[in-house]
């Protein structure tokens, strides 16, 4: 043991018990010297194991016997929970595993406290008393004994100032971070300890520590539903606040604990609309972190929270659901608050500006149709401009998901009606579109790089960098697309032309020019559909040929012709598939099962094509 001499105030115990006492003590208070002894390995091991005999003959006062962090014997025992005992636990019918458990000794704690009552309130270097240590490590047995002995000993020692409410004062003592035993039990999820503390001091006011965290907030943040329920049901004074202006409901949403969310809303409905320092409600976080079930609960209890925008970007919960591509949460919000569809953020974006980037066009179309967003009143959302004049259509053409939505024509995507009304020439129009394209790409990249909420970034589509080879002029892009469609139409016309002269089943040998299966209904269907495919594809080729002669100044007419050629090409492809199926059926009728199987497999192209196109 190593002995040192340090100075301690005479009112040390009273200051430990009640920090307010320190304000009445003059700064010139004379200090008394106190001998401190640092325990050696033997005493430290005895303190950890709860060996009371090692301290029976100790000549040093127990409140002066500490380790390097000023932990007393009671601090050390409160941390370890007693001697580790090896127990064999059956893990399988034929196997056992060894488990180390602490063997708690009530007698050790009682004798220490009886011998030196000041140990109950003595602080270590972090201003923690033994109750803090026991609560942090979840040793409910030690907590119970400390409370019981405090209620007895503190009343029996009035000369030391250990009076008044006994254990309640011990429960309310704070460490250097302003944590009480309630805070530590809640942070580490020790329900049994919290129950003991709440039973002893149900009137305790849940003040915040230096980080702004209350015990209720810590329990909600950790997802400890039982602890939240315990505090709400058994404590009279409950504070819901947390750091950065958040509440316990914010914490429960971030933890993804639906049961705790329901419990907190039942206790205090106003929490659903309470915002943090950034102006975000719990619904904002449920939308951003893709917690649909929790968002549904919040909206069912109070749907008005969907109309609240945050301070940083002016975004509603619907915006945040859209920029994460969360169709389910968007559906919940729109079904409960259809009026929030038209809300815009500080840059003038409605939720579709984000959705066309984060959601694939096929899924977005299905979502909008199912939720009736494409009706007369809401369809204009696609044409609403932001502060820079960009509509969701502009964003969709420039972002990673550059595809066409089924119910819009090709021209409605590409034409800027305002420029046409002003009578701008096509060269000026396309130069303007190229500049818009570059500006929108930069805007999307900025959103992807800077938009982050609590460490979770937005949908990866916002962070997808556009490749240099894709940065071609608008006219070049349209021309390449037209050439591809022309090639497809030409191939269909060639195949169907050849099929018309090499009919299924061949020709009769005795009658010149007569097809063998000419009287078969399936063969007749083959001839009709093959002819339709040939004529449609040939008309599409003709329209593409006429486009070469059509000047770019007639922009609207060009895109109408392109759209018509596409419809004819798609129709020719469907007719060609039907012709193939009916022709195969006509020549395989002798084996009816094989014929039906072949025809069915061929016709599977049509629903697959419709799904991809629509």
From TrEMBL:
This is Protein ACCELERATED CELL DEATH 6-like. The keyword Cell membrane does not apply. It is a multi-pass membrane protein. It comes from the Eukaryota. InterPro entries: Ankyrin_rpt (IPR002110), Ankyrin_rpt-contain_sf (IPR036770), PGG_dom (IPR026961). The chain crosses the membrane at residues 486-507, 527-553, 559-580, 592-610. One of its GO terms (cellular component) is plasma membrane. Residues 477-586 form the PGG domain.
């Amino acid at each position: 043991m190593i002995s040192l001499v340090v100075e301690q105030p005479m009112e040390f115990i009273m200051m430990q018990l009640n920090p307010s006492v320190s304000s009445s003590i003059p700064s010139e208070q004379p200090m008394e010297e106190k001998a401190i002894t640092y325990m050696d390995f033997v005493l430290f091991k005895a303190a950890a194991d709860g060996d009371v005999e090692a301290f029976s003959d100790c000549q040093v006062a127990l409140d002066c016997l500490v380790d390097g962090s000023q932990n007393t014997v009671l601090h050390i025992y409160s941390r370890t929970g007693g001697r580790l005992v090896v127990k064999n636990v059956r893990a399988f019918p034929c196997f056992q595993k060894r488990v180390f458990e602490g063997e708690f000794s009530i007698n050790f704690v009682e004798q220490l406290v009886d011998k030196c009552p000041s140990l109950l309130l003595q602080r270590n270097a972090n201003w923690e008393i033994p109750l803090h240590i026991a609560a942090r490590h979840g040793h409910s047995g030690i907590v119970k004994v400390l409370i019981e002995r405090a209620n007895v000993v503190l009343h029996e020692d009035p000369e030391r100032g250990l009076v008044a409410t006994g254990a309640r004062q011990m429960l309310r003592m704070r460490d250097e971070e302003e944590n009480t035993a309630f805070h530590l039990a809640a942070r580490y999820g020790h329900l049994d300890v919290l129950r003991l503390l709440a039973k002893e001091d149900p009137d305790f006011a849940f003040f915040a520590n230096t980080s702004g965290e209350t015990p209720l907030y810590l329990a909600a943040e950790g997802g400890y539903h039982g602890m939240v329920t315990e505090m709400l049901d058994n404590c009279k004074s409950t504070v819901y606040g947390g750091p950065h202006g958040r509440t316990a409901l914010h914490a429960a949403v971030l933890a993804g604990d639906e049961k705790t969310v329901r419990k907190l809303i039942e206790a205090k409905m106003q929490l659903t609309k309470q915002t943090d320092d950034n102006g975000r409600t719990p619904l904002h976080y449920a939308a951003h972190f893709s917690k649909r079930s929790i968002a549904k609960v919040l909206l069912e209890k109070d749907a008005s929270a969907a109309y609240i925008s945050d301070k940083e970007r002016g975004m509603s919960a619907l915006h945040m659901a859209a920029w994460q591509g969360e169709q389910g949460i968007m559906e919940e919000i729109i079904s409960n608050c259809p009026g929030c569809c038209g809300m815009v953020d500080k840059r003038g974006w409605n939720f579709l500006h984000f959705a066309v980037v984060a959601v694939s066009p096929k899924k977005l179309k299905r979502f909008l149709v199912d939720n009736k967003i494409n009706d007369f009143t809401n369809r204009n959302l696609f044409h609403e401009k932001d502060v820079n004049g960009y509509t969701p259509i502009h964003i969709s053409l420039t972002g990673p998901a550059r595809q066409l939505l089924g119910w819009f024509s090709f021209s409605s995507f590409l034409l800027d009606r305002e420029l046409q009304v002003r009578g701008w020439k096509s060269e000026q129009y396309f130069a303007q579109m190229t500049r818009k394209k570059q500006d929108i790409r930069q805007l999307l990249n900025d959103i992807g790089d800077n938009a982050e909420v609590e460490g979770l970034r937005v949908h990866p589509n916002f962070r997808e960098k556009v490749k240099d080879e894709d940065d071609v002029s608008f006219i070049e892009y349209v021309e390449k697309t037209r050439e591809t469609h022309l090639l497809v139409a030409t191939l269909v016309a060639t195949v169907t032309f050849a099929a018309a002269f090499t009919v299924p089943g061949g020709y009769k040998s005795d009658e010149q020019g007569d097809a063998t299966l000419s009287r078969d209904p399936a063969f007749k269907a083959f001839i009709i559909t093959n002819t339709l495919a040939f004529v449609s594809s040939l008309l599409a080729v003709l329209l593409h040929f006429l486009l070469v002669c059509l000047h770019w100044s007639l922009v609207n007419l060009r895109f109408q012709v392109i759209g018509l050629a596409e419809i004819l090409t798609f129709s020719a492809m469907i007719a060609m598939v039907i012709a193939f199926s009916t022709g195969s059926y006509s020549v395989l009728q002798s084996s009816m099962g094989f014929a039906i199987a072949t025809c069915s497999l061929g016709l599977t192209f049509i629903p697959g094509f419709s799904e991809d196109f629509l």
